[in-house]
Structure formats: structure tokens, C-alpha cells
Amino acid sequence: MKIYILNKVLEFENNVESIEEIFEEVNNIIAISNYTLSHFEIDGDEVYNNFYGYFFKNIDTIEEVKVITKNIKDITKEILFSNIEYLEEAIFEVEVLANEFYKEPSKKTWSELVNLLEGIRWLMDTFYVVDMSDELKYIVTSYETWNLYAKDIYSLKDIMEGIGGIFENDDIAFPPEILSDEILPLFKDMKDKLDTLVDRNIDKSKLN
Predict the structure, then answer these.
(1) Cα(84)–Cα(67) distance, rounded to whole angstroms?
(2) By three-state DSSP, how is residue 66 classified?
(3) b/e string for 125-135 if b means 16 or more Cβ within 10 A?
(4) Cα separation values, 11 from 1, 5, 14, 28, Å
(5) What's the mean pLDDT in 46-56?
(6) Mean pLDDT of 44-54
(7) Span 20-28, mean pLDDT?
(8) Nearest one of 193, 75, 201 to 138, comparing CA atoms
(9) Rounded Cα–Cα distance for residues 93 and 74 (Å)
(10) Radius of gyration for the alpha carbons in the chain, expressed in angstroms and rounded
């Protein structure tokens, strides 16, 4: 089989013994590049997970493998695009959720609150990834605005640290206040900042 990765073409025998060597060589090439693995295109099929299992199952027939990579800059942009899209949807969802808590919250309402908290954790986690990226200076339009966005993230962190008591005390009066008075304006402010930080006119299809 032939394996195409970055500017190299590798050839391996179609046997189980080659699989470990294939992944070792692919990982070594990526490790010394400014790229990261996205997925494999194997004889026309796009494979995004369980790579080893796919190779093991189809090793006898695989002819051509394309290793699809993304550079760190593109990944960072994708994260920021995803942040903006999440905030756009979450702003509406927070408004709905706050209204439900002002009325009579159901089990579904509490479940949606948990989902929101997971979304906030994701926003925080992705912020740390982007903030540590060497490519940040080439992506955001203003470090000053990015630092203000960082303050919003830390405000979310403070909210998350104080929100545990809601579940411990089953305090249904507390969630709508946090949602409408703290999280909602923060989400709107964060989205506005990201809209000015990232050029959304970039063709995202070029990042794939």
C-alpha cells in the first residue's frame, strides 16, 4: 500500500505486522511538523476514529492511504469559529432556560442547565488552548480585546465555582438570576468581542 503524508509517499506491505510500523512512522513525521492529524482517507473512505481497528480489519485490501493533516493556525481558527457559533445558539437557549426557571423547572430544565454548564466548561477549555497557541498573534485582530475576552472567561470561571450550591440546595430561585443577570450578558459580550477578533468572512471550507 502507499501512504501519502505531507510531502512524502511511504510504502508498506499489506500485513498485520506493518500496522505498528505505519502508525509509528506517521506519528514521527507529524511530530516534527507544524501539523496535527485530522483523519485518514483510505481508498476513498474518510476515517475519523478507531484508525488501528480499520487498518486491522482491512489490511489485506488497502491500496492508498492519505493522511489528512491540519496546521495549528487552522485548528485555532476553527476553535474560535466554533466558539462564536456556540455563543450565538447559547444566548437564545439561556434566555429560554431562565424563563423556565422563573416558572416551574422540570427535570428537563435541570438537565439543560447541566448541558449549559458543560458548554461553559468547553468555552473555558478551548480558551486555554487558543491562548497558549503560538499562532494567536496571527489570528486575532487585537490583543487588547483578546485580554478583555480573557477577563470574561475568568468571570465565567468564578460563576462556575459558585454554582455548585444550586445543586446541593436545590435552590430554584437562584438559577434564573445567574442565567439572566450574569451568564446572558456575559455571553453577549463575549460574542461581540469574538466577532471583532476573528474574520468570519474566511472560507471555513479551506480549513478542512
Answers:
(1) 29
(2) strand
(3) ebbeebeebeb
(4) 6, 11, 10, 15
(5) 93
(6) 93
(7) 94
(8) 75
(9) 29
(10) 22
